[in-house]
Amino acid sequence: MKVLVTGAAGRLGRTTVPMLEAAGISVRATDRRTDSNLSYPIEVATLLDRERCYQLVDGVDAVVHLGNWASAGSADAQTVFNDNTSMNMNVFQAAMERGIRRIIFASTIQVILGVRPFGGASANVPASDYPYLPMDGNLPPNICNPYAASKSASEQLLQYFTRWHGMHAVAIRFPMLLTPSHYARAAATIDKVYQGYNLDEGFTYLTFEDAARLLLATLRTDFPGYRVYQPAARSPWVMLPVAEIISRFFPGTRLNRPLHEIATMVDLTRIEQETGWSPQDEIAGPRAAVAV
Fold it and tell me: What pTM, to 2 d.p., does this model score?
């Protein structure tokens, strides 16, 4: 299999490309910049150049599309939204016209978050807009910023391409991704949570290594149509049991099963059943406090 990886010089890309290569996958890596410290070559290109996108997808079997502005604060609102949606349409359309049928797209948990800031350990907690918990890939969009809007619009594009052009696509709504150095110091007690943190993230996270392993597992899985995956580590990064997080920060939210049976903020059942992937990395500490 030969795979185009866009955004291959970014933090997730530089974890993913070596992992795919180690698994025997031939990788064509592209980004708008290169880095002499990388162990693989980068084809420097901008995905805003639609004709260049046709060249990039030629001869590959699948696309792992990571190449977007990475957050709402990466640039001004118009640039983030306009560039991301343009890049994504260029890549998806070129892949479709060149006969490539598999796309894995890096979306974000921000697609479903809305705006629900943490105001401190003693502050009143506003109600969540989630229709249910645990979270999963079926939660509807609830846009909180132009970056999330660009990802949601691009998820809609993928649904269009899968429904009307026979493509197979997965949008992965990644939570906060952690590098090894952040991972080592990320666990926190509730009094250390910064004010303004969006409570609907549910204190979820994933390491870059686990995220890359999910991309690899999804590439290895042959299924038709369109899917949305919502991955996360099994433990939260805040040092509270999951049952307490739900009771304290999601009062009134409907639960899909009894509270004492919920061990994780995100239901990973579909991902695990379809791909065989499970998160391997956890912040030391919170898991021991999870009510099971």
Answer: 0.95
